[in-house]
Amino acid sequence: MHRTLLTCLLVLTLCTTVAAQQITLTREQIIALTPEWKGDRLADGRPNVPDKLLARLRNISLEEGWGILRNAGYNNQFEGDWMVLKPGEVLVGRALTVQYLPKRPDYDKVIRDKGKAENRIGNFNSWPIDMLKPGDVYVADSYGKIVDGTLIGDNLGNSIYAKSKNGVIFYGSVRDAEGLEKIEGFNAWVKGYDPSYIQEMMLGGINVPIRIGRTTVLPGDAVLAKKNGVVFIPAHLVEDLVLNAEFIALRDQFGHQRLREGKYTPGQIDQQWTDTIKKDFLSWLDQNPGKLPMTRQELDEYMKKRTW
């Protein structure tokens, strides 16, 4: 308990002082913010959720992801009501978080001077782009500003895709939407579009905790973005979430098939399964190995802990 309290106080102290002293949290600070992640980390300290898990996450529905997070006590990880550049495409990746604030000249000067000392190039909205790695998603809180709040146009969009092979999620706006649409593989979830340029804004911090609507996002969170919304998943929960969601999808496939065949009634499928149905489901899994999104070993280990 004493150690936990000290860790919390350290993190709070770091987060309250970082904006005036640093542009981005250090590796050690990011590790302190995400202590439940036990796997590999990126060079900057963010959890490195494996690419194979991210690929499987792409097939998880928003409802499944949201429901599993709610059951784990994470009630504030979904944000809807987006303007999506390419609604038919899915975006997954690791969050590189950025906070923007309304401009205050004295604070803005501190940040710009710090950026100059660190040899950062261009305007502050391009600094996060220089830090992107393959698989990253540039996630920015620009406090819903639309007019004069356009974080990128097609030039920066091309740079983002070149570095991350991914897209962006902005609680704010973009410009040059037609040009952005032409970038193959790039996608954007934003709150609006405007032809204006960014004005009266400043950088608050990079790889810091941010708010995206009704969600809290930490650096390294896994992002699942589809046309109806975005779920931000704490890195340490991704593997269990994927396995749970994949198992639920398998149960649903089996149940739907048996209902179409008339073997069971809706009441039998919608309630706690009998031993007969469970046995039938296990047999169905053996007969349909091509339907498994996970390895059979992963499924067997998972089912040892599942209570149905």
Automatic annotation (TrEMBL):
Gene3D superfamilies in the record: Ribonuclease E inhibitor RraA/RraA-like
CDD domains xrefs: RraA_family (cd16841)
Pfam families reported in the protein's UniProt record: RraA-like
Cofactor: Mg(2+)
SUPFAM superfamilies given in the database record: RraA-like (SSF89562)
InterPro entries: RraA/RraA-like, RraA/RraA-like_sf
Organism superkingdom: Bacteria
Annotated GO MF terms: metal ion binding
Keyword Cell inner membrane found: no
Keyword Signal: yes
Keywords, sorted A to Z: Magnesium, Metal-binding, Signal
Residues that hold substrate according to the record: G153, D154, N155, L156, R175
Residues in the signal sequence: 1-20
Binding-site positions, Mg(2+): D176
PANTHER family in the cross-refs: 4-HYDROXY-4-METHYL-2-OXOGLUTARATE ALDOLASE 3-RELATED, BLR3842 PROTEIN
Full protein name: RraA family protein
Species in which this protein is naturally found: Chryseosolibacter histidini
Classification of source organism: Bacteria, Pseudomonadati, Bacteroidota, Cytophagia, Cytophagales
